[in-house]
TrEMBL record:
It comes from Virgibacillus kapii. Pathway: Amino-acid biosynthesis; L-serine biosynthesis; L-serine from 3-phospho-D-glycerate: step 1/3. The gene is serA. Transmembrane segments: none annotated. Belongs to the D-isomer specific 2-hydroxyacid dehydrogenase family. Keywords: Amino-acid biosynthesis, NAD, Oxidoreductase, Serine biosynthesis. The keyword NAD applies. Catalyzes the reversible oxidation of 3-phospho-D-glycerate to 3-phosphonooxypyruvate, the first step of the phosphorylated L-serine biosynthesis pathway. Also catalyzes the reversible oxidation of 2-hydroxyglutarate to 2-oxoglutarate. This is D-3-phosphoglycerate dehydrogenase.
Length: 312
């Protein structure tokens, strides 16, 4: 009997190659299904593959009476109710390594675009303004980059920022002073990072402990003129607090790839000229999408053929 796999978010076609090659597997693409249709049909499927858009909530999981495995083509599993999946005996695998490089590169692109006001200057020029005074930027060399969350992506950002001759101070609950020394970066508490940094970039998951980690108190503690970057998860920054911190000029600017609610169009933050933004594009490269789709497809095949998953 063929295993039925439902794919409800767009995955790289090249990355789905292992699934197309595998025997006894049938694939259905459901990228245009509503959440309601998904809930009505999910019972037919053995495996569900998603990115970050599909909300694999308790309601969906409860209806997924034949589901055995959920594959998340990417890192964050915050769109999946892990408790509900566990209660229903459904295994969840993700692809934590495949998009590290792309997310780190996007973060550096955001830091550089922010420091040189490139999106604002581009828009101004497209509006037939040749304004060189308004878009004077800030050098990165000798500035301090504060990294909160020094995991896979945070560490890659640190290596790249050193290439820009930035000083790095980082906080991560699993980072020791010794490890920091070996990476030639300064170890600091969250408070020390907030006080020292000219640019702050966040690379933690969204957890109970990290929700609104950058809130009004944090913006009170930062250096005046700091730049904030979030290419991790919406909700780690309190968006209203960021808005007020920018309006009061405490924060000079922010680069945001992720938002508390996505898709995101109408927030007052997007009306501030100091804010640049991308629509959750950190992992959106051909390489990363192929890589995460391959990783998760291979793991689903392993599982459905009775082998142990690797969850690379
Ligand atoms: P990771 O698990 O390798 O690293 C996360 C780090 O955060 C860990 O080292 C962990 O110890 C640390 N951490 C946990 N709680 C913390 C806290 N309270 N304070 C400080 N640090 C804390 O994950 P990663 O692969 O580096 O991904 C980081 C984030 O980026 C995740 O939220 C992920 O979902 C997101 N992400 C976004 C995109 C995008 O498209 N924008 C792409 C890939 C990953
Ligand atoms: C992730 O957690 O991997 C990213 O948010 C990228 C994605 O949406 O797939």
């Amino acid at each position: 009997m063929a295993f039925k796999i439902l794919i409800s978010d767009p995955l790289s076609e090249e990355g789905m190659y292992p699934l197309l090659q595998a025997e006894n597997i049938s694939i259905e693409l459901a990228t245009d299904w509503s959440q309601e249709k998904l809930a009505n049909q999910i019972t037919e499927y053995d495996a569900l593959l998603v990115r970050s858009q599909t909300q694999v909530n308790r309601e969906l999981i409860t209806k997924a009476t034949n589901l055995k495995i959920i594959g998340r083509a990417g890192v964050g599993v915050d769109n999946i109710d892990l408790d509900a999946a566990t209660e229903h005996g459904i295994i969840v695998v993700n692809a934590p390594n495949g998009n590290t490089n792309s997310a780190a590169e996007h973060t550096m692109a955001m830091i550089m675009a922010l420091s040189r006001k490139i999106p604002q200057a581009y828009l101004s020029l497209m509006n037939k303004q040749w304004d060189r005074k308004k878009y004077v930027g800030t050098e990165l060399k000798n500035k301090t980059l504060g990294i909160i969350g020094l995991g896979r992506i945070g560490a890659e950002v640190a290596y790249r920022a050193k290439g820009q001759r930035m000083n790095i101070i980082a906080y991560d609950p699993f980072l020791t002073e010794d490890q920091a020394k070996k990476m030639d970066i300064q170890y600091g508490s969250v408070d020390e990072v907030l006080h020292a940094a000219d640019f702050i970039t966040i690379h933690t998951p969204l957890l109970k402990e990290t929700r609104h980690l950058l809130n009004a108190d944090a913006f009170h503690a930062v250096k005046p003129g700091v730049h904030i970057v979030n290419c991790a998860r919406g909700g780690i920054i309190d968006e209203d607090a960021l808005y007020h911190a920018i309006q009061s000029k405490k924060v000079a600017g922010a680069a945001l790839d992720v938002f508390e609610e996505e898709p995101f169009y109408d927030h007052p933050l997007l009306e501030l000229p100091e804010v640049i933004a991308t629509p959750h594009l950190g992992a959106s490269t051909f390489e990363a999408q192929e890589s995460v789709a391959i990783d998760v497809s291979e793991d689903v095949i392993r599982f459905l053929s009775g082998e142990a998953v690797r969850n690379p």
